[in-house]
């Protein structure tokens, strides 16, 4: 009997969803299990049209004499309950549920009516790791007629409250603008990897924790486009010189916008832009507030010639309109379109990078003797990164004049003049001074004891001599 004859035994046909769904398996009586390739991208439209109304999965009762026994292996769970597909799990989810994903590729893009099941909900999706679970964002091949609009974006969670992704890779492979998740209130991405450029995340807040941004070729990893408050905590960016584009026209002149950067790393093999490329020119009466905290590291990025920082800069002077306030560890370092100071120390860092790296060219004047015997010279230093110049006077103290009592104790070394540089003060070594004083005391005591002993012997000798003489 061949497979076609075997399938005719059953009154219930084998659904195509059993074969196409992620994690589904088909068992034939005379063959071993053949797991479906989990790396194949699921076409949710096709799956929706062919999947029978089964939620949760029900095992079908078959006659013991049957030769075909369809089985379904869950690859999506809510708690201990398994489901045939991601769509079925989302449809049966409640507000606040956590949905666990197995290995493979998942997406809700273009799933019919999926917004009706995600709207008003907060959902958490947890994968098996960035090298095992993959989530597709939007279309792999966008519609050219929609370029320049949001309509190539992903509407799967339109109207959702908070959506969280953990332990997976999120992929936006299309190399066009205005991609991402449309109209989620808040998004959280934790312990994930994001491939490709995205614009749309939380429309109230977007938080990225311990997430790696990768595979951006020559473009930005992310725009702050839709998120009034966007936070990056412990994230790493690998790119071709572009990282975060701080810009919006979506909410131009409507509200203040905040970007928080904490303990992040920006790595490139070819310099192009600063870690944050900022354009505040269209903010109207509102401002961007950028907060750097902790230890933020850059590799391969050159300091911006205006901000003197590798962390933030502008593509041109027009984009620096004075609607930006930057703080480092809570200390203002940039406002009113200029640096607050070229040399600022904060709790974890220094601003500027010229000051931090001590990258200055120095010009020194001649020493001039002052009325009090000290010497002064004029110093000018120019930052090698931004050209910032500052001038100051350096003071050298007058030599100390010896007193009459100290002349007899002078050595050639002690006669040398003392120089005091007002830029760096030397603290004397108090420990060595104490040791020297202690040694002097010990030597003096030993000398006095010796003289006393000699005096006693001399006195005894004198007495004995006197007695002998008068005998």
UniProtKB/TrEMBL annotation:
Q: Keywords on this record?
A: Membrane, Signal, Transmembrane, Transmembrane helix
What transmembrane ranges does the database entry give? 449-466
What SUPFAM superfamilies does its record include? Pectin lyase-like
Sequence segments annotated as region (Disordered): 40-64, 399-421
Q: Where in the sequence is the signal peptide annotated?
A: 1-29
Cell cycle is among the record's keywords:
no
Tell me what this protein is called.
Right-handed parallel beta-helix repeat-containing protein
């Amino acid at each position: 009997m061949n497979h076609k004859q075997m399938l005719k035994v059953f009154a219930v046909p084998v659904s195509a969803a059993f074969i196409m769904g992620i994690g589904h398996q088909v068992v034939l009586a005379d063959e071993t299990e053949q797991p479906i390739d989990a790396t194949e991208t699921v076409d949710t439209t096709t799956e929706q049209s062919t999947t029978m109304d089964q939620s949760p999965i029900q095992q079908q009762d078959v006659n013991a004499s049957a030769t075909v026994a369809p089985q379904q292996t869950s690859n999506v769970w809510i708690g201990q309950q398994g489901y045939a597909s991601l769509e079925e799990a989302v449809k049966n989810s409640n507000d606040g549920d956590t949905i666990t994903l197995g290995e493979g590729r998942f997406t809700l893009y273009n799933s019919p009516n999926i917004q009706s099941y995600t709207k008003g909900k907060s959902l958490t999706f947890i994968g098996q790791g960035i090298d095992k679970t993959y989530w597709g964002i939007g279309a792999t091949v966008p519609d050219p007629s929609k370029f320049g609009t949001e309509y190539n974006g992903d509407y799967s969670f339109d109207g959702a409250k908070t959506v969280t992704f953990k332990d997976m890779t999120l992929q936006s492979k299309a190399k066009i603008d205005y991609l991402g998740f449309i109209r989620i209130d808040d998004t959280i991405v934790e312990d994930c990897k994001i491939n490709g450029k995205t614009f749309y995340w939380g429309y109230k807040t977007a938080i990225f924790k311990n997430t790696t941004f990768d595979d951006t070729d020559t473009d930005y990893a992310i725009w702050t486009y839709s998120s009034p408050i966007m936070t990056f905590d412990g994230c790493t960016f690998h790119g071709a010189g572009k990282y975060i584009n701080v810009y919006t026209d979506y909410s131009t002149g409507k509200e203040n916008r905040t970007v928080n950067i904490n303990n992040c790393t920006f790595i490139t093999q070819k310099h192009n832009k600063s870690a944050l490329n900022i354009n505040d020119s269209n903010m109207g009466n509102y401002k961007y507030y950028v907060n750097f905290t902790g230890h933020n590291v850059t590799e391969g990025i050159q300091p911006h010639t205006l901000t003197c920082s590798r962390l933030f800069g502008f593509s041109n002077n027009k984009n620096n309109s004075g609607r930006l306030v930057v703080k480092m560890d809570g200390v203002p370092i940039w406002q009113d379109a200029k640096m607050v100071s070229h040399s600022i120390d904060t709790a974890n860092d220094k601003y500027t990078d010229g000051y931090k790296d001590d990258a200055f060219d120095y010009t020194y004047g001649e020493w001039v003797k002052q009325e009090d015997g000290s010497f002064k010279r004029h110093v000018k230093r120019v930052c090698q990164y931004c050209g910032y110049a500052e001038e100051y006077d350096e003071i050298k103290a007058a030599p100390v004049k010896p007193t009459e009592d100290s002349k007899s104790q002078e050595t050639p070394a002690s006669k040398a003049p003392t120089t005091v540089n007002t830029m760096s003060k030397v603290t004397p070594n108090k420990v060595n001074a104490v040791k020297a004083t202690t040694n002097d005391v010990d030597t003096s005591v030993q000398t006095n004891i010796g003289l006393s002993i000699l005096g006693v012997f001399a006195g005894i000798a004198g007495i004995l001599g006197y007695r002998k003489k008068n005998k």
